[in-house]
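Exercise: predict the structure of this protein bound to MTE.
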Amino acid sequence: MPAYRFPVPPASEITPKHAILNRRAFMAGAAGLAVAAAGAPVRAQAGEMLKTVAGPFSTDETPNSLDDISGYCNFYEFGTGKGDPAKYADKLTTRPWTIEVGGMVNNPGAIDIEDLLTQYTLEDRIYRLRCVEAWSMVVPWVGIPLSSVLEKFDVQGSAKYVAFETLVRPEEMRGQSSTFPILPWPYVEGLRLDEAMHPLTILAVGLHGEVLPNQNGAPVRLVVPWKYGFKSIKSIVSIKFTEEEPPATWNLQNPREYGFYSNVNPTVDHPRWSQASERRIGGGLFSSRIETQMFNGYGEQVASLYDGMDLKKYF
Ligand code: MTE
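Solution:
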């Protein structure tokens, strides 16, 4: 294993506890009962409650409402409008769902979503999300540290980066079959290995205690809270360890405007707008802007990852 710059918990300390889905009584409608009676396995559905424990690193700021978070989204696979994902993402089937894990690992394999939901401790982590478009939200994610999910694949010592890919399924993702091309698909993202294994980085499977709404990246998405929101790739189907810096969708689209690192940094403006302040969604149209914090307020945890780097160059 490569040398990390912070302690990674040994396997013995992350013994999976069984996180059991605590289905809400009202979700057991007639259809659900009929399926259960027929013997089909009961699957987690958007809106069902998850059994969670309080996780570390939560901000004490008031979270945005579920309506704000699931109604104002960026998920170009469903269109470019902020309301498009809420309108169209219900078409996405999220079962069965596996993430293939490969590249520079000694034990390549796959992660099944049912295992993620049942064999790990699901943590509540209230994080600020700062979008590159200068708006922000506070999101109470339900997630699992990415490092604890990836360690069983036994990363090779020479791996330096982690590459992520979103599902391609134009029949269910209308933005992928749009007549004018929105983005090249799949949406791809990447992190340096130490960023991916940092204890703040999670795979999110829920928010507000419930199974993730499709429009927020169901059934499983990345959350890297000190980076602009576009690094937090949704509906992941592939994770690969690499030696070279992996491609990242927005960086490929426009390398002048979007760097690989994309750390939240109020002192490095986007070429077309300032990054010094942000508008908190849900605060009303005339709410005052708030100052953007370096690393989105997570500097104490992550600044040391970039010691000696010129963050104007590596933006
Ligand atoms: N992942 C995929 N696959 N496709 C996308 O268009 N948009 C990104 C990121 N992940 C995006 C994605 C952007 S720009 C942001 S700000 C966040 O998702 C938004 O997450 P949210 O809609 O859950 O707030």
